C-alpha cells in the first residue's frame, strides 16, 4: 500500500518500502549490466575480433528484444509483471555466469558467445514490457514522474560507475570478472523483487481472451495515439542510424590505444554522470508539452557521435557525453511518465511492448551495418553522418503539429 505521509517525508518516494526494494534491485542489476558492454567489446577485440564480430554479438542480444517483446507484453498484462521479471533475472544470471566461466578458461568461442548473449536478450524481452505497469502498482499516478526520476538517477549512477569498472577489469584482472559480477547483480535483483508486495487488483478483461486478441487490443491502443507511433518511428531511426554504430564504433575508436578500454569506459561513465544530473533535473521539471520538451532535449543528442568524429581533445569528448547523458535521462523520464499517464493501466504493458518493439526493431540491423559502414566510410565519417541525420530529423519533428497534442496533465486530460 502507498503511504501518502511517506511521500512527504525526507525520503520522499524512497520512503515507500516496495518502491525502495524495486529501485534497489534495479540499481544493482543496472550496475552489473553497465560493466558488460565495455568489458565484452574489448574482450572480443583482444581475441582478434573485428567490428563485424562485435556488431554480431550486440545484434544477437538485441534480436530477441525485437522478436519476443510483444509476447512479453501480453504475458505481463495477463499475469503479474513481477513473476516475469524474476524469471528474466534468473535467465540472464545463468547466461552471464556461463559466459564468465567460458572466458575464465579461455574457451568462449564466437558461436557460444552468440548463444549466451541471445539468452540475455530473451531475459530482456520478458523484463522490459512489464516494468511500466509494475511501477504503476507501486506508486500513484501523481507520483510517477518523481518515481521515474528517482529510478533514472539510480540507473544513471550505475552508468557512471559501471563502464569505468568494466574498463578497469579489462585492464587488470580480465573481462570475465565484470561479466561474473553482472550475473550476481541479476540474482540480487531477483531477490529484491521477491520481497516486493503488491495488492492483486485484477483488471476488467476477459480471462479467456486469446493471445492474438490481446495483441490486437494493444495495437489498437498504440496506433490511436499519433504522437506515440510517430515518436517511436523516430526512436527506431535514432537507434539504427546513430546509437548502434556509436556503441560499436565508439569502442573501436579507442581499441588501438594502450589504455583504450579505460578511455572508452571513462566516456561511458561521464555519460552516466550526466544522466544522474539529468535525473535530478527531471524531478523538478513538469513541462506543459512533454513531447515537445523531449524533442528539445534530443537536439543535444548529436553531440555524442559528432564529438568522436572530429579531432576534439579527450576532455571535450567527456563534456559532450556528459551533456548527452543529461539529454538521455530527461528524454527517458518524460517519455515513460507520459506513456504511463496516457495509457490505461490494463493495456500499458502491451503498449510498452509495441513501444519497445518499434523503437528497437531495427537495432540489430544497426549493429550489423556498423562494421560495413566503418569499412566503407571510415569510423569518423560514419559517426558524423549518423549524428547529423538525427539532428536534421529532430528539427523537422519540432516543426510538426503533433508535438503540441499532448499536455502534461492528469491521465483523464491527456489527448489521444
Report on this model:
- The model is unreliable at 1-10, 200-208 and 412-416 (pLDDT under 50).
- The protein has 16 helices and no strands.
- It starts with a helix and ends in an 18-residue tail after the last helix.
- The chain has a single domain (12-198, 211-411), classed as MFS general substrate transporter like domains (Growth Hormone, Chain: A, Up-down Bundle).
- It has helices at 4-7, 17-46, 51-78, 81-104, 110-138, 144-171, 175-195, 211-223, 226-254, 260-284, 290-298, 303-309, 314-342, 348-360, 363-377, 379-398.
- α6 (144-171) runs antiparallel to α10 (260-284) and α9 (226-254) packs antiparallel against α10.
- It is an all-alpha fold and 416 residues long.
- The radius of gyration is 20 Å and the shape is globular.
Overall mean pLDDT: 82
User: In whole angstroms, how far apart are the ends?
Assistant: 30 Å
Kindly state the percentage of residues in helix: over 70%
Within CATH, the superfamily carries the name MFS general substrate transporter like domains
The total of helices stands at 16
pLDDT < 50 runs, ≥5 residues: 1-10, 200-208, 412-416
The coarse silhouette is globular
CATH class: Mainly Alpha
Computed CA radius of gyration, to the nearest angstrom = 20 Å
Portion of residues in beta strands equals under 5%
CATH topology: Growth Hormone, Chain: A
Instruction: Please tell me the CATH architecture by its name.
Output: Up-down Bundle
Q: Structural class per helix/strand content?
A: mainly alpha
The major sheet is characterized as: none
Q: What string, H for helix and E for strand, traces the elements in order?
A: HHHHHHHHHHHHHHHH
Protein name: MFS transporter
GO cellular component, one term: plasma membrane
Main location: membrane
GO molecular function: transmembrane transporter activity
Amino acid at each position: 500500500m502507498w503511504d501518502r505521509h511517506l511521500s512527504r517525508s525526507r525520503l520522499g518516494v524512497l520512503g515507500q518500502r516496495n518502491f525502495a526494494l524495486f529501485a534497489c534491485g534495479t540499481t544493482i542489476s543496472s550496475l552489473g549490466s553497465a560493466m558488460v558492454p565495455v568489458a565484452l567489446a574489448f574482450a572480443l577485440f583482444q581475441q582478434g575480433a573485428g567490428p563485424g564480430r562485435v556488431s554480431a554479438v550486440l545484434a544477437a542480444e538485441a534480436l530477441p528484444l525485437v522478436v519476443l517483446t510483444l509476447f512479453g507484453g501480453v504475458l505481463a498484462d495477463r499475469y503479474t509483471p513481477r513473476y516475469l521479471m524474476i524469471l528474466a533475472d534468473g535467465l540472464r544470471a545463468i547466461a552471464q555466469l556461463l559466459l564468465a566461466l567460458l572466458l575464465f578458461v579461455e574457451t568462449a568461442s564466437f558461436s557460444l558467445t552468440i548463444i549466451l548473449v541471445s539468452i540475455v536478450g530473451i531475459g530482456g524481452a520478458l523484463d522490459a514490457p512489464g516494468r511500466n505497469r509494475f511501477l504503476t502498482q507501486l506508486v500513484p499516478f501523481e507520483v510517477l514522474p518523481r518515481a521515474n526520476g528517482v529510478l533514472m538517477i539510480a540507473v544513471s549512477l550505475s552508468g557512471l560507475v559501471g563502464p569505468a569498472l568494466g574498463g578497469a577489469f579489462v585492464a587488470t584482472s580480465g573481462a570475465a570478472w565484470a561479466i561474473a559480477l553482472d550475473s550476481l547483480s541479476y540474482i540480487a535483483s531477483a531477490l529484491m523483487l521477491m520481497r516486493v508486495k503488491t495488492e492483486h487488483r485484477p483488471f476488467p478483461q476477459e480471462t479467456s481472451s486469446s493471445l492474438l486478441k490481446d495483441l490486437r487490443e494493444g495495437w489498437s491502443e498504440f496506433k490511436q495515439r499519433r504522437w506515440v507511433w510517430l515518436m517511436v518511428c523516430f526512436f527506431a531511426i535514432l537507434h539504427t542510424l546513430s546509437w548502434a554504430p556509436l556503441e560499436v564504433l565508439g569502442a573501436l575508436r579507442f581499441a588501438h590505444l594502450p589504455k583504450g578500454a579505460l578511455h572508452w569506459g571513462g566516456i561511458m561513465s561521464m555519460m552516466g554522470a550526466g544522466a544522474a544530473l539529468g535525473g535530478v533535473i527531471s524531478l523538478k521539471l513538469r513541462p506543459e508539452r512533454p513531447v515537445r520538451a523531449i524533442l528539445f532535449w534530443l537536439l543535444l543528442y548529436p553531440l555524442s557521435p559528432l564529438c568522436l568524429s572530429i579531432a576534439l581533445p579527450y576532455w571535450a569528448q567527456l563534456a559532450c557525453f556528459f551533456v548527452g547523458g543529461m539529454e538521455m535521462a530527461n528524454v527517458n523520464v518524460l517519455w515513460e511518465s507520459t506513456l504511463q499517464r496516457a495509457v490505461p493501466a490494463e493495456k500499458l504493458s502491451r503498449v510498452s511492448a509495441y513501444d519497445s518493439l518499434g523503437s528497437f526493431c531495427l537495432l540489430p540491423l544497426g549493429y550489423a551495418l556498423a562494421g560495413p559502414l566503418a569499412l566503407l566510410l571510415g569510423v569518423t565519417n560514419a559517426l558524423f553522418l549518423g549524428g547529423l541525420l538525427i539532428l536534421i530529423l529532430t528539427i523537422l519533428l519540432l516543426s510538426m503539429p503533433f508535438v503540441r497534442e499532448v499536455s502534461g496533465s492528469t491521465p483523464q486530460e491527456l489527448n489521444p
